[in-house]
Amino acid sequence: MASLVLLPILVPLAGATLGLLFWRWRGWQAAWSAGALAVSLLSSILLLAEAWRRGPVVFQLGGWPAPFGISLVGDLPAATFVLMAQVVLMAGLLYALGCRDRCVTFPVFYPLFLFLTAALTGSFLTGDVFNLFVFAELLVASATVLTALADERSGVEAAYKYFYISLLASIVWLSAVGSLYASYGTLNMADLAQRLAADPSPPLVPAAVVLMLVFFMIKAAVVPFHFWQPDFHAAAPTAVSAMLSSVVVKMGVYGFMRMTTLLFRPQAAMLQDWLVVFGLVGIVFGGLTALGTHHLKRMLAYSTLAQIGFILVAIGWGTPSALAAAVILTVNHSLVKAALLMLAGAIASRAEVKSAAFANLIGLGKGAPFLGALFLLGGMALAGIPPMNGFVGKLALFRSGILAAAYPSLAFLGVASILTLVYVTRAFQMIWWEPAPSGAKVKPGGDRLLAPTILIVLCVLLGLWPEPLLALANAVSAWLLAPNAYIAAVMGF
Length: 493
What we know:
Blueprint: H1 7-19, H2 26-54, E1 57-60, E2 71-74, H3 76-97, H4 109-125, H5 129-148, H6 154-184, H7 189-198, H8 205-219, H9 229-235, H10 238-248, H11 250-263, H12 268-292, H13 296-317, H14 320-348, H15 358-361, H16 369-383, H17 389-403, H18 407-432, H19 450-464, H20 467-480, H21 483-491
Antiparallel strand pairs: 1-2
């Protein structure tokens, strides 16, 4: 069963490579890419089932035992993030198949989308800090080109911004990796974890902690390293921005979880305090800026800053219930944010000039009631209103905060939840309730709604029947808080 951990990476990687051969036959290429991602999604389901039922699935590349070779580790947290990501990525590919953007007709679009899938999946499954750098670079290359392909002229500018901030992040990560290797002579995460726990005194370790923290803050667009995100998501093709703002930023969330529970356990208390501070700042800043923006996609991009802040606070509290709440919030945010960005692209595709600026969308939704119903449900999920899945996550977060007696932080969380409700309601009112300007023209059709409908249905189901997600989140939390089991599985003790 060890090969299960390879399939979610190799299938999209092979699918992307072979998909380039169909560059002259776009329909065949799209069908091939959808099939490859469907097979990859099935393998990720099997991986999660195996990790949950029997324990971690570990594959040592080349047959080299840890810590001498590269380890791929499909434990419960990694498998959960992989399945979450691939569900949303599959929805993103379905949206691309039904959208009217010219960029999706380019012969490199679908192969790059599969490369991005393989890179993000690999970043969750790798058990080696340098191999994480390799997957992160493949992700950056794919996302940069996909953004530069955007129909809007600002796509190239946004791609440059993302590329250069990612280049800075890469330098930061390599510096952290170099510091750890100079201190302990290993790059394997499990081996590093046990060596750090035994001797956290080498002088380069504090620098490595700070550098890794900065790297994951950039990847998760945490304030004050968020400045690349709004322009990037507003300019990128909808099928791409929906992925970047929902699941790609979760690479940083996953990194924070591993830093505080596995790699840097001696420094965990300090890291958790910082995560709470950065999370609270992001919650307030993201909510206020989302309230003040005049562009629907930018509003949702700033909203991501606030929603990531909720997750950081939960990770910072660090209790079993708080970590479980962080997992629930992560999954729920991935589904609803991808759906809302797809709906933003769908309503903009019906405008005479395709743009998600509110001035271009006023009253445009009156002829699309089903789209409005989906957006209303998605907005309820984002604001944490029952019976949507967002309510389950917020309830778990507040419950864990009460158990941790973090009452000042809870006050910030309550205010931020109100802000979310205000800016979502404002957007809904402008698009579906206000009268359209005289002379405004609406296209008879637009991007298809299959993909966001599937995601919104999942949000409703997880709100009405949250037990499976709650059980999974509690199991992930328990595993994260038992790092010795991870070390033993990878090292073969």
